[in-house]
Amino acid sequence: MPTTRRATVDDADIIVHHRNRMFLDMGLPDDDHHRAAMANFRPWIVRKLQNCEYLGWFATHDDRVIAGAGLLLIDFAPFAGDPGTVRGHLLNFYVEPEFRSQGLGRTLLELAMAETRARRIRTVTLNASQFGRPLYESFGFEQSTEMMFHNSLDA
Amino acid sequence: MPTIRRATVDDALLITSHRHLMFADNEFATEAHLSQMDAAFEPWVRAHLADGSYIGLLMEDEQTRQILAGAGILFHDFAPHWMDFKPARAYLLNFYTAPASRGRGYANHLLRAAVEECRARGVALVTLHASKFGRPIYEKFGFKQSTEMMLRFDV
Q1: Bridge pairing between strands B54-60 and B3-6
Q2: Which of A125, A145, A149 faces B126 most closely, judged by CB atoms?
Q3: How far apart are alpha carbons B123 and B89 in whole angstroms?
Q4: Do residues B58 and B68 touch, judged by C-beta distance below 8 A?
Q5: How far is B118 from chain A (nearest CA, A)?
Q6: How far is A138 from chain B (nearest CA, A)?
Q7: What's the half-sphere exposure (Cβ side, CA atoms, 13 Å) at A131?
Q8: Which domain holds residue A105?
Q9: What is the count of structural domains for chain B?
Q10: Structural domain tally of chain A?
């Protein structure tokens, strides 16, 4: 069983590293768009860690962080079947390459899901990469009906 | 074409009824679940109309002042991302047209106005959850299925 710990405000750089590598490992180009997003992500994650709307977990090996995951608490409209106003969104799942296929993603997902249960959150979402999809399916996650439109702001 | 006006906090009850009728039309939930949702949603939308994080667009008949259709935009403080490097994301919800006013393109008109509102605020990424009735309208506009997965715990 790997050692795990909660992320603190001092861990912003580790979470930035995980998010950056997660997108690059998915094949996203290391271009201006990605770099601008990552530059804006750092103050965002510091703010979210400070106001406790982002909860993070790490797996460690000899005090080195080798994997991470996050749960964002999102203010959401009460829904039929979920009258709560908080929805959980999982993000920034990342495992360092040499520590993959050891179940660290599953361990972190279990910790995050236990937190949603403790908070009585009834709706949990995430955006799945092709790598993560089988793990999420094994927890009961299903494709949602979400659709997305990218507004061109240049026009 | 009727005119679109901005909802105020005084429209909270009307928007709650739109949300209720929208889900009832989709046979999405039992009446018990819907009334539980109404009780939670009305104060939620009132607070979000007041602080500006929820924008309601209401289509009003110019003569009778009757509301024929409505839609909402919820602005989220979301993790900066390669598709939108500002910490903002828009979520469209509560698209509803009164039965007697259907088939006139009002939903499409509201969708255009909502996406334009997002663009004016510099929000690049617009999301929504599509019903089977709404999906063709959103697809025609350019919305695409996202990678979102969801897990819902029953009440």
Answers
A1: antiparallel
A2: A149
A3: 6
A4: no
A5: 8
A6: 11
A7: 13
A8: 3-138
A9: 1
A10: 1
The string of pLDDT tens digits covering residues A73-124 is 999 999 988 999 999 999 999 999 999 999 999 999 999 999 999 999 999 9
ipTM: 0.95
Is the CB of B140 inside 8 Å of chain A's CB atoms? no
Domain membership of residue A102 (yes or no) is yes
Q: Which residues, 6 or more positions from B77, have their beta carbon under 8 angstroms from its beta carbon?
A: A44, B87, B88
Residue A40 contacts residue B87 (beta carbons within 8 Å): yes
A50 HSE (CA, 13 A, CB side): 6
Q: Supply the pTM of this predicted model.
A: 0.95
- Position A24 in a domain: yes
* Domain containing residue B111: 3-141
A118 contact B CB<8A: no
Beta carbons within 10 angstroms of residue A25's beta carbon: 13
Which residues in chain A have Cβ-Cβ distances shorter than 8 Å to B118? 151
- CATH number of the domain within which B77 lies: 3.40.630.30
Confidence label for A8 from pLDDT (cuts 50, 70 and 90) = very high
- In the stretch 26-65 of chain A, residues with CB closer than 8 A to chain B read 28, 33-34, 36-41, 44-45
Nearest residue in A to B79, CA atom = A41
CB distance A61 to A2 below 8 Å: yes
Whether the CA torsion A71, A72, A75, A79 is positive or negative: it is negative
The CATH code of the domain that includes A25 is 3.40.630.30
B151, part of any domain: no
CA distance B155 to chain A (A): 6
Say if B154 falls within a structural domain: no
